[in-house]
């Protein structure tokens, strides 16, 4: 039944010239076939399998790395994007699909998701949850860009956002996760990486860069001259040949970092080295959004040697994913000071790369093991172990941002894992790992080189027999591990 006030509202909408202008009224449209709008695509046929494959692996990756799903609306207040992405960026100045609703609200189709995720984090009081809050999403995004290879007006992104973790390990984990996710669907990639500093050191860098470009004003393109006045970092995105030459000699942001940013960056690189992540420092990488601080990175398909030698295949140079830190964004949007970071993958670009790569995908196994660590050296070792297990197809979980064993075992219990692997200082020195049976609480030492085969045996037994699980005994407060309690295998 239509209520009176709804009818009145409908009448009002019909009489509203803005609403009518949005409707197709040309009678000739009846006689022609409709097509997708320019820069927008239907996904079907063979590609659907690739989409499902990516979605399945993304979901598995999200679970392993402890992300919860969040879906935000496709429409948001335009001001949210203008405020966060910033005036002077291509997205805000030229690319947003914006309009006014019948009710007079100024809204935009989302051009990206970090701003909306941060809006949601604040709106739902998520700072009251245990930190970090890790969220992931998958969905359509809209930018009124010039359609070309790898650049659509409606495209899809898959993304991971981490709120409430300032550690460089969080940056490293996001990159490791991205390399692994793409590797799991057969794409070999490199990480391009830079640090653009924080509110303390970036102004100095911007001054140096502005000064340098002013000195070379006569040699740069017209667009860069405009950028120089509006958003000088964007000059580093320019691909014009003349500007490339100027860019090569420009001051680099890493040279202007303050001590805290330098330390963050160095520790990040150490974590990446620890896991042999293929990264390249890219001093001109700034990424065009205003909210980034410190780490910025992009994931690119590794160029086949032949293509690299010929200088061809520009499409493969397009980033499959990009991300960075945004430590000031939550506060900027009215929340408490909360560090944050995230990554977004362009799904169409990833699917295109899958098409070009031959891939075989291992099926995920049902039961997972949890990796727990005690102390900094153990954390590094556990980080490595985590990757090794995933490489071997052993489903894993972790909570690296927690320090205490008790807190980590609580997470392991909540995940209902049958086994937790514990790495402490002693285990690092002895090249061993403790396997804790979460049902009985029994802990056993296993030599590192026997660990994989031991876990494979145990998990295949478990996955073959649907065991009825009983709750693990209560967890004692943290205390040093007592080797006498442990039966040596
Ligand atoms: P950004 O949100 O600009 O950091 O982009 C993250 C990722 O989304 C990029 O690395 C691309 O893979 C993808 N992407 C961005 N813009 C487009 C577009 N117009 N068409 C297709 N993919 C895009």
Model description:
Helices cover 39% and strands 19% of the residues. The chain has 489 residues and is of the alpha/beta class. It has two domains: 47-201 and 257-356, Bira Bifunctional Protein, Domain 2 (BirA Bifunctional Protein, domain 2, 2-Layer Sandwich); 369-488, Rossmann fold. Strand 16 (443-447), helix 18 and strand 17 form a beta-alpha-beta unit. Helix 3 (47-64) crosses helix 14 and helix 7 runs parallel beside helix 11. It is globular. Adenosine monophosphate (AMP) binds next to strand 6, strand 10, strand 11 and helix 14.
Give the secondary structure arrangement, pairings included:
Elements: H1 4-15, H2 17-21, H3 47-64, E1 68-69, E2 75-77, H4 78-85, H5 90-95, E3 98-100, E4 106-109, H6 114-123, E5 133-142, E6 154-163, H7 168-184, E7 189-195, H8 202-215, H9 222-230, H10 241-248, H11 259-274, E8 279-281, E9 293-301, H12 305-310, E10 319-325, H13 329-332, E11 340-346, H14 347-356, E12 369-373, H15 376-391, E13 396-398, H16 405-414, E14 419-423, H17 425-430, E15 432-437, E16 443-447, H18 448-464, E17 487-488
Parallel strand pairs: 1-5, 7-8, 12-13, 12-14, 16-17
Antiparallel strand pairs: 2-4, 3-4, 5-6, 6-11, 7-9, 9-10, 10-11, 14-15, 15-16
This protein binds adenosine monophosphate (AMP).
Adenosine monophosphate binds next to strand 6, strand 10, strand 11 and helix 14.
């Amino acid at each position: 039944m239509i209520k009176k006030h709804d009818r009145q509202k409908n009448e009002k909408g019909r009489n509203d010239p803005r609403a009518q202008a949005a409707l197709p009224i040309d009678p000739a449209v009846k006689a022609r076939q409709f097509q997708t709008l320019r820069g927008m695509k239907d996904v079907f046929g063979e590609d659907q399998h690739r989409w499902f494959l990516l979605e399945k692996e993304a979901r598995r990756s999200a679970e392993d790395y402890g992300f919860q799903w969040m879906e935000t609306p496709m429409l948001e207040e335009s001001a949210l994007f203008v405020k966060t992405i910033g005036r002077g960026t291509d997205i805000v100045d030229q690319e947003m699909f914006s309009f006014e609703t019948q009710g007079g609200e100024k809204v935009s189709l989302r051009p990206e998701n970090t701003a909306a995720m941060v809006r949601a984090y604040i709106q739902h009081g998520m700072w009251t949850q245990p930190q970090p809050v890790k969220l992931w999403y998958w969905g359509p995004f809209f930018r009124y860009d010039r359609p070309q290879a790898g650049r659509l007006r409606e495209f899809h992104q898959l993304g991971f956002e981490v709120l409430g973790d300032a550690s460089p390990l969080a940056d490293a984990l996001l990159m490791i996760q991205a390399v692994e996710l793409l590797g799991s669907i057969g794409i070999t990639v490199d990480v391009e990486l830079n640090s653009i500093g924080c509110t303390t050191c970036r102004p100095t860098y911007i001054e140096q860069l502005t000064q340098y470009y002013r000195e070379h004003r006569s040699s740069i393109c017209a667009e860069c001259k405009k950028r120089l006045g509006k958003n000088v970092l964007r000059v580093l995105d320019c691909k014009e040949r003349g500007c490339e030459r100027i860019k090569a000699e420009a001051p680099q942001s890493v040279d202007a970092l303050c001590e805290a940013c330098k330390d963050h960056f160095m520790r990040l690189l150490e974590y990446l080295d620890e896991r042999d992540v293929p990264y390249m420092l890219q001093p001109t990488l700034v990424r065009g959004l205003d909210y980034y601080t410190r780490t910025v990175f992009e994931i690119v398909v590794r160029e086949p040697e032949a293509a690299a030698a010929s200088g061809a295949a520009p499409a493969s140079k397009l980033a499959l994913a990009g991300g960075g830190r945004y430590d000031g964004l939550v506060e900027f949007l009215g929340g408490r000071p909360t560090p944050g970071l995230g990554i977004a993958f362009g799904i169409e670009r990833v699917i295109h790369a899958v098409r070009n790569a031959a891939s075989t995908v291992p099926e995920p196994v049902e039961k997972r093991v949890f990796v727990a660590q005690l102390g900094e050296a153990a954390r590094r070792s556990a980080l490595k172990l985590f990757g090794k297990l995933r490489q071997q197809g052993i489903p894993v979980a972790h909570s690296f941002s927690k320090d205490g064993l008790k807190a980590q075992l609580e997470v392991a219990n909540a995940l209902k894992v049958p086994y937790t692997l514990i790495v402490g200082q002693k285990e690092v020195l002895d090249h061993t790992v403790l396997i804790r049976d979460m049902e009985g609480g029994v802990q056993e030492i296993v030599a590192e080189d026997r660990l994989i085969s031991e876990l494979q045996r145990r998990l295949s037994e478990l996955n073959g027999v649907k065991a009825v699980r009983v709750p693990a005994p209560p967890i004692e407060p943290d205390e040093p591990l007592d080797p006498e309690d442990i039966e040596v295998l």
